[in-house]
Each structure stands twice: as C-alpha cells, then as structure tokens.
C-alpha cells in the first residue's frame, strides 16, 4: 500500500498541473476574445479601462500574465481595421506605460522588450497612415512617438553585449565534490559550506541562462526588428520640408548606428524629394 502512494501522489500532482495549465489557457483565450470584441466595436473606452486595470495589477516586478495580456491588447489593435484615431491614444498609453518600466524580474526582461516592441510597431504604422491633416497636433504626436522609439532603441543598445559569447550552462548543476549527484536538492546536502556553494552555483547557472536568452533575443531584434522600425520612421518625415534636425536629434538620442542613420536619412530624402542640410551630410560622413 505504501509503495503505491508515491505513484498516486505523482499522478495527482501531474493532473493538477495539467488542470492549472488548461485553466490558465482558457483564461487567456477569454481575455483575448474580450479584447478583440471591444476593439472590433471600436470601443476605445473599454480597451483603455482594460489597460488601466492591467497596470493596477502590475505590482513591483511584473508578471508573465501582465506582459501576455498587454501584448494581446497591442496585437489586437495592430490587426484591427478600427485602429484609427479613436484607438491611437490606447496604443500610446500602452507604449508610455511600458517604456516607463526599466527593470522587471529577471525572467521577464525579454518579455518587457518584446511588449515594448509590440506597442511601438503599430504606432509607427498608424501615424504614418495619416496622409492628410498633418497639422501641429500630428507633429506633436510624431515627436512623442519618436521619443519613445529613441528610448526603446537606446535601452536595447545599452543592454546588447557586442560580440557576446554565450555563458556555459547546465540542465542539472553538479554540486561541489562530495555534495552528491547533479540536480540534487540543496536541502539534501548536510555540510552547510558545500550546500551554500551549491546554491551559489545554481543561482549563477540560472543567471547565465537568462543572460544567454536575453542576448540572443536582443541580437535578433537588433538584426531583424530594427529594420522594421527604420522603415516605419521614414514615412513620418516624408512630407516636405522634413524637419531633418529633429529627426537627427532623435536618432542620436536612440543611439542608432551610423549605418541606420544613413539609411533613414537617405530614405527620407527620397520620400520627400529633398536633401538633408549640409551640416547633417557632413556629420554622417565623419561619424565612426
């Protein structure tokens, strides 16, 4: 009878885990549907309330649920035909809230960057889609969006380690000699010195895993995601005469590379059929 207990216990634990995952999946599906329903109706007030409610539950370090749900909002808005003037403030609100956050719990660092990217992308597209009525208010929206883009770009650049080589990591960390087998529970080690050393090794392995994951994500984003951001900036400055000085200041603030700056400036020149001021031309030629 006693020999059967661990098996029954393991089965119950596995079943509970499956039930919890199913419930979590059902909850996320229901949330996605409620967001899409509100967006589909063009109900900006309801969507904004959903975003505000999410923010109230953010806590001190965030959660996976928070980033999943706010990305659902951003993606639903990005995919909707109703994402026009009424929904634009909701996307701005999402981007503002996300760009305010500089630090989150370790495992959520990549989730924060991803959700910031999810908010910025549709904003660039929606603002660029305004081909008429580019008045003072529109220009202020552009400046606000470019400030967000610059903050995002600078953070990615500051966290991206050049020529990064992944840290060695283990699926099961081996304890110090005499501490037992790989993957052992630290509590099973009687020697406090060996136990403390083992706990430190586990912590370092976890941190190295997070750094490897984050650097891989940031590298992919810098290579692929930023090309979309660059392409999204050009239409914002396509109306002649473009404010080249403003654009260049934002590119400097965002620590865009020389290659990126040249690509964007040249793209604006072609789109607006104008030429950047001589001073900016000279800077582009002399930058390292």
Element layout with pairings:
Elements: H1 5-40, H2 44-56, H3 64-79, H4 88-100, H5 109-128, H6 136-159, H7 192-233, H8 244-253, H9 258-272, H10 278-286
Radius of gyration of CA atoms, rounded to a whole number: 24 Å
* Percent helix: 55-70%
SS-derived structural category: mainly alpha
User: What is the number of strand segments?
Assistant: 0
Gap between N and C termini, in Å? 75 Å
How large a portion of the residues is in β-strands, by DSSP E? under 5%
Mean pLDDT: 84
Low-confidence stretches: 1-22
Structure, described:
The chain has helices at residues 5-40, 44-56, 64-79, 88-100, 109-128, 136-159, 192-233, 244-253, 258-272, 278-286. It is mainly α and 288 residues long. The longest helix has 42 residues, at 192-233. The chain is flat and about 75 Å long. Residues 1-22 have low confidence and may be disordered.
Quick structural overview:
The protein is 69% helix and 0% strand.
Keywords:
mainly alpha, flat, disordered N terminus, 288 residues, 10 helices
